[in-house]
Amino acid sequence: MTGNSELDALTEAEARAELARLAEEITRADLAYHGADNPRITDADYDALKRRNAAIEARFPHLKRDDSPSDQVGAPPAERFEKVRHEVHMLSLGNAFSDDELDAFVAGIRRYLGLDAQTALTFTAEPKIDGVSLALRYEAGRLVRAATRGDGETGENVTANARTIADVPDQLDGAPDLLEVRGEVYMAHDDFAALNARQSARGGKAFANPRNAAAGSLRQLDAQITRARPLRFFAYAWGVLSEPLAQTQMGALERLGALGFVINPLTRRCADMATMRAAYQEIEQRRATLGYDIDGVVYKLDDLALQDRLGFRSTTPRWAIARKFPAELAWTRLEAIDIQVGRTGTLSPVARLAPVTVGGVVVSNATLHNEDYIAARDAAGATIRDGKDIREGDWVEVYRAGDVIPKIRDVDLSRRPADARPFAFPRQCPRCGAAAVREEGDAARRCTGGMACPAQAVEKLKHFVARGALDIDGLGGRQVEALYRDGWIAEPADIFTIEERFGSGPRQLKNREGWGEKSARNLFSAIESSRRVPLARLIFALGIRHVGESAAALLARHYGSWAALAQAMDRAEIGQGPEWDSLLSIDGVGAVMAQALVTAFHQPAERASIDRLAAQLEIVDAETAGPADSPVAGKTVVFTGTLEHMTRAEAKARAEALGAKVAGSVSSKTDLVVAGPGAGSKAKKATELGVEVIDEEAWLALARGG
Fold it and tell me: Is residue 63 located within the same domain as residue 113?
């Protein structure tokens, strides 16, 4: 028995099919990662596939495929490079994901060598660099060839590119006549950020992480491109040799360092399991401050004679293993807490982190949600994170789930700086200085500056031109920020006068940096096309808090025209009156949304901005669905009680298809109430207001036109 009930239950046919699927998936992942420098899946997902494959092969050894991923290393070299055959294969490492698996690795060595538990075994521990493997061949002290790992047997000749790396010596003094040095090419975080900034400035594609950037840079056909890329190299192993470097792993690394190679300074000897675990914990804690990516700790048996006795499996050495870090977690330092202001005035705290790679993505920011979250309280005021608040200077554990924005999971109080102080959430907007208030029952604090706040103004403008709103082609977030900064636009209405103001004369759009005559002309055309806008899109584009696309469609269908909506908002009083009741009667509109909508139209500055915008537009009335002769076209219908022949959703859809408006509550503007069994207050109110009430059978007859 395997001890795994799911594996034990597999039939041979199921296992054979699963091995075929895994072989295909792992091969695709290898080609993407090693061949195209563009990973399809995370390291954690890849490791899970490999472990699943190994577990099934262990359960059904006779089903192991000829092309089993267990026997593969890397991916075939690309056709565009000259091929290099490695005299000593460049193998991968086995992985351990827990202390128990590390214990099993050491116990396996003892069994293989016939050593008892009292016999001392010394290991080296070093950071596992997340980069690209490279083999450097020196003859008579001179670099003659550099090759990538490829599939472990055959790599790619990248000699010209390797010569551009400052950490790769071209000449060695005192080296063996034949020496192949192996190590990892990588890119530091600061250099990676600068490279991506240059890529972005040139309109090029940004790299996802430093490993991709290093791989893509090393495998350029033009060595001058590689020269312009800030690559570095750590040496940690060797291949073919004309004479031994030393008797131990650590001694050999020290010899390589003396020859001029950069050896990782965190490499150390470990005399027992306790020091091996301590090395892992220390390196994991220092991960965020290294300035380059690591994804685990590599342990190697220090005695080279014992390494020779242990030898190799098909794809991994028996004397080394990689203890991997959890892929979606990482510890790093919180350097600052910044406050961002959104288009509705929400003050959102953001953690600025020392960059760390989590799940294959470089993370430098994380959400902090709101002031309660920072203070270790949830929405109900209960304690979270065992009461550990978050302070600038703290060491925090960051996690990612899928593509969700990174979040902070924990705080290490043992590493908190002595001068760290609780974070004081601002009571004034950091952008405009207006009061930042927190309404009762609200988790967020908001700026009261409105469009006078530059942060809100810019975010509202971005929202206005975005997809789903006006969707003005050629006017994205970056262009909006620049035009706002230079005073060319201050509110949405200004967009529609930009050609009049800057289409000709001394200050022309076409003369701005990043613009030209054609792009300016295209923008003017796109703006002109967007003047004719459906009512629902305009309502959404206004960026009123709580009013999303669905709510905007409901409001458009209810009021029908811009004039009707504006007049209703003029007459509406929050919490009372027929217009307020009519607004709340819309199925899907609640008191919170209704209050935000009425407030927006009643604020003088915001209302004036809305009116200036409306004057620039041709606002298309909401279409009345259904046939013109429908008996309920244009009428407001309310469903209440239990419907026996259809669901409430079906009834609503049918009514809207006939041109009716479906409301959630009864008011003086309600035309018809359909009451099923159990109808209560709504039917009673309809009777009091003199609104017609019918049962479901009568509604079905009406809907059929009978």
Answer: no
